[in-house]
Design the sequence.
């Protein structure tokens, strides 16, 4: 797989000189499998408290292909980065646009739920015909594989334009704070939880809504992964006509929900398909105190203690 960075508009001198370094540093150049597309936001402190300084990084890929991308300052391929936090005075949410030179190096001065998100400019990707067809089938991108069959492209090099959206919810302890977490940010492909288990807003069954350009997306595969485990995925579901999918959380922890959506494009020299990779990480603010079951190891430890 060959990945290149495509910037909308005329590239600056800094942008042009930085392309190769970015691709090498992030592992995007010469990646060998579709897993390298997976990207999610991760906190330097897994359970930050008020006034804690936290750094947010972008994780890309799995296993030996996993790379950590520093977001302070913001890489030039980040199109937009925001933090939504409660206002200290009113408690209402307030959106802060992240400045490029400061990046995601944050001091959590306010208690309660925070939401962090970024979107990228477009990358381009080329894969061999066999690898691209397999990748589309593995990811459940039926519309794109059917289009390749219809257009006689199954034996042609697979070319796509792809973007990333990544969102992280750092949940507070109160179910009453869930409005910040359950309100869409207007990302082009966005996973929106309908409740927050960490804040006691729901139990094991987590409903999420998938929005594509603000509208419910039907028939997309949504995957649940336990960030503490290498045995992925934990669960998967498909969205219904309202864009809703239900995922069962086996135990408390930090969870990533991800999805991919792709569609055919024509008359674009960069590729034959456009794809968006979207992720949502649910993380806890302090000790969760939720109704979720403990992991088997925690249960065993608890029994031995008592």
Sequence:
């Amino acid at each position: 797989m060959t990945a290149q960075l495509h910037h909308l508009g005329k590239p600056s001198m800094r942008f042009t000189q930085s392309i190769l370094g970015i691709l090498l540093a992030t592992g995007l150049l010469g990646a060998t499998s579709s897993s390298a597309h997976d990207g999610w936001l991760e906190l330097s402190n897994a359970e930050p408290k008020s006034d804690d300084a936290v750094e947010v990084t972008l994780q890309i890929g799995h296993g030996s292909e996993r790379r950590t991308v520093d977001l302070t300052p913001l890489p030039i391929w980040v199109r937009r980065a925001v933090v939504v936090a409660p206002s200290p005075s009113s408690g209402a949410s307030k959106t802060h646009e992240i400045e490029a030179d400061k990046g995601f190096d944050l001091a959590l001065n306010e208690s309660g739920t925070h939401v962090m998100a970024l979107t990228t400019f477009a990358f381009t990707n080329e894969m061999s015909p066999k690898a691209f067809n397999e990748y589309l089938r593995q990811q459940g991108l039926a519309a794109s594989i059917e289009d390749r069959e219809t257009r006689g492209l199954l034996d042609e090099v697979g070319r796509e334009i792809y973007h990333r959206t990544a969102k992280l919810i750092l949940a507070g302890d109160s179910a009453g704070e869930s409005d910040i977490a359950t309100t869409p940010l207007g990302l082009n492909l966005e996973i929106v939880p309908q409740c927050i288990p960490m804040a006691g807003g729901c139990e094991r069954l987590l409903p999420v809504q998938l929005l594509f350009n603000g509208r419910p997306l039907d028939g997309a595969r949504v995957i649940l992964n336990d960030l503490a485990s290498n045995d992925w995925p934990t669960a998967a579901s498909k969205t219904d006509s309202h864009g809703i999918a239900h995922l069962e959380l086996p135990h408390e922890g930090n969870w990533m929900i991800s999805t991919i959506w792709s569609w055919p494009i024509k008359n674009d020299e960069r590729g034959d398909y456009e794809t968006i990779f979207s992720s949502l990480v649910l993380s806890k603010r302090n000790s969760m105190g939720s109704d979720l079951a403990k992991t088997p190891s925690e249960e065993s430890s608890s029994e031995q203690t008592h």
Observations:
- The CA atoms of residues 124 and 161 lie 5 Å apart.
- Residues 13-26 form the longest helix (14 residues).
- The mean pLDDT is 78.
- The chain has one domain: 2-294.
